[in-house]
Amino acid sequence: MSPAFLDAPATAAILVALPGARAVGGAVRDSLAGQPVQDVDIGAPMAPEEIARRLRAAGAKVFETGIAHGTVTAVLHGVPHEVTALRRDIATDGRHAEVEWTTDWREDAARRDFTINAMSMGADGVLFDYFGGQADLAAGRVMFVGDAATRIAEDYLRILRFFRFFARYGRGAPDASALAAIRAGVPGMARLSVERVWMELKRLLAGPMPAEAVARMDEAGVLPAVLPEAGATDALARIVEPEPMLRLAALLRPGADLAALAHRLKFSGAEAAQLAAMQGALPDGDDNALRRALAEDGHDVLFARVALAEARNGVDRGALRDRLRALPRPVFPLLGRDGLSLGAAPGPALGAALAATRAWWLARGCTDDVEACRAELARVLAQGQN
């Protein structure tokens, strides 16, 4: 019986439209590992133009997202699939490959990174495993396809991918020959774009329990090469939430320059703000202090600070977490229109008066209602006119 993911209507229709096509890579790996299958990628033994033609004839919307590299995105029944022509590498430079199309499945599998990613499966559920990926998956081994140094030299991002897959599928010590090739390949990582590096780091940190893999990265010289701001990995091991920015915060050494890190790895504005907010002071004191902190930063940020404090100091802060959870986030009850209704003119003076009223509301523990705040705003506006 074929795995359930092959019977999904969109996947089944694409496999029918492309004779000889198979599911490849992660869907096959995760199905065999008993993990949820997210996206299904398809390989087909024909040129990308022929793939696109056949898919359109089958009623799919086809987007030529990477046709120069043999890949199109097919959307059928509202579900996208990446479909790629079988390829062989002609030349590589550690970042990009020059390829040509082939109909040889083993040749296509040989250019993949790890044995657990080099498997494919036909529409009937028959597994094609040219390099022992199924056995490696069952044993918790992450093994390069063929010679590790050769695979790394083709794309140095595979160093980071090794540790990401080790974190999710590995058991026991990593393969010694792979680690030796990784150590020798670390200088080549300087060729990688920071966007690709951060993408892989983020995926690693979002996975289940990445601390051991990160510690292995450190031992191999990979971590200081890509994240010189990192400190000891002890705190990271105590963060159970699969939140990459929180885990990154736990990994950084005290006093790390967050702005420089965000600039170097080209964080989004939201990522940079999230990381900075997590480093703020932990609220302490009575409920008024906690309400002030909640009004300023919200539950998610404060829970992250609690988790960081627990991870760094090894001290349980469950009581503080429970107190925060029991308090709703206070919301300042006034808007600009409240000042206008009191006769104030729009402009900087009104903004300053609202800010002063909010500061008064915060100082009093965020408990004053809208009428009390309107009265204070009226007082501030009157005072400004005198």
UniProtKB/TrEMBL annotation:
Molecular function via GO: metal ion binding; nucleotide binding; nucleotidyltransferase activity; tRNA binding
Any Pfam family matching the protein: PolyA_pol
Superkingdom of this protein's organism: Bacteria
Cofactors demanded by this protein: Mg(2+)
InterPro entries: Bact_CCA-adding_enz_type3_sf (IPR050264), NT_sf (IPR043519), PolA_pol_head_dom (IPR002646), PolyA_RNA-bd (IPR032828)
Domain tRNA nucleotidyltransferase/poly(A) polymerase RNA and SrmB- binding: from-to ranges: 178-230
CDD domains: NT_ClassII-CCAase
This protein's record includes keyword rRNA-binding: no
GO biological process entries: tRNA processing
Residue ranges of domain Poly A polymerase head in the record: 22-142
Keyword entries, A-Z: Magnesium, Metal-binding, Nucleotide-binding, Nucleotidyltransferase, RNA-binding, Transferase, tRNA processing
Family: Belongs to the tRNA nucleotidyltransferase/poly(A) polymerase family.
Protein name: CCA tRNA nucleotidyltransferase
Lineage: Bacteria, Pseudomonadati, Pseudomonadota, Alphaproteobacteria, Acetobacterales
